[in-house]
Amino acid sequence: MNFENILITTENGIGQITINRPSKLNALNVATIKELHDAFENLEKDDNIRVIIITGEGEKAFVAGADISEFANFSVEEGAQLAAQGQELLFDFVENLKTPVIAAVNGFALGGGLELAMACHFRIASDNAKMGLPEVSLGVIPGYGGTQRLPQLVGKGRAMELVMTAGMIDAETAKTYGLVNHVVPQAELIDFTKAIASKIMRNSPVAIGFAIKAINANFKDSIDGYKTEIKNFGKCFGTEDFKEGTTAFLEKRKASFKGK
Ligand code: COA
Fold first, then answer.
1. What does the record list as coiled-coil region(s) (predicted)?
2. 20 to 30 Å CA-CA from 102: which of 4, 53, 94, 120?
């Protein structure tokens, strides 16, 4: 597939998506959101890909937000549609993938950029990263899930302050808040993220997919998370991965999971 705004590499079971509009600090225009949807969909379908990493091109930005130049003249209806389409195509889509998605936050992650990082299953930041939801400084609110996912990750009070002040926090503060799991020097960001991906890849892809579903259920009002866990726990017993994992343990050897 040919993409204009993103780069894709696949190696050793890891699919890496790099948002590639560095002259616009990798701002998310609608075309990029559509390309990202297609890229995630393709990588999810590829059984050889066990982990997806998303990052931004260059040393300055992960993503500096939704592309402001595209929506500056939108009407009420167009604004609502922009948010709805983006959430469906990218942000909710990423959150609900069964393949683990790690955001390697390599610089500014603002507005839609932080929202994209928060839709990923977890985040690792470079030491120069800066994060925030500055939308109210533009007279708008976060529209790609930021008002929901930020309080889930950092708590209501911190989310209120970050959104109301339109402020930015540095990587270490983000770690203290629980917004990112690790902070590493920028030059080590991708290798460090790949090392975590390798640990994930030792485990059953099917079980990981079910675990993502069960954990996500905790944050959906209409779904009972405990029931989701019970259902998916049960499903594991019908998988080849479960037979392989338990047999390998009893035979004192390393499991070789097929993801089935
Ligand atoms: N949408 C569209 N273009 C953006 C953008 C965005 N969210 N963020 C940065 N850009 C563009 C700038 O317009 C500029 O383009 P130009 O060279 O054609 O003028 C280019 O990226 C470089 O950005 P610049 O502002 O010159 O870099 P800086 O180092 O001075 O400042 C930021 C960096 C991140 C502080 C600043 O770009 C910024 O505040 N961006 C907007 C952040 C935001 O409000 N995001 C939420 C959007 S809902």
1. none
2. 4
Q: Which residue reads 């500055």 in tokens?
A: 134
Mutate to test the pocket of ligand 1, among 19, 25, 128 (most ligand atoms within 8 A of CB): 25
Q: What is the pLDDT of residues 30-60, one digit of tens each?
A: 999 999 999 999 999 999 999 999 999 999 9
| Contact status, residue 114 vs residue 132, Cβ threshold 8 Å | yes
Is the four-CA dihedral 137, 143, 149, 151 of positive or negative sign?
Answer: positive
> Are 6 and 18 spatial neighbours (Cβ–Cβ below 8 Å)?
yes
- Which pTM does this prediction carry? 0.97
Q: For residue 177, how far is its CA from the centre of ligand 1 (angstroms)? A: 25
Give the architecture-level CATH label for domain 6-200. Alpha-Beta Complex (3.90)
Catalytic positions, written as ranges: 115, 135
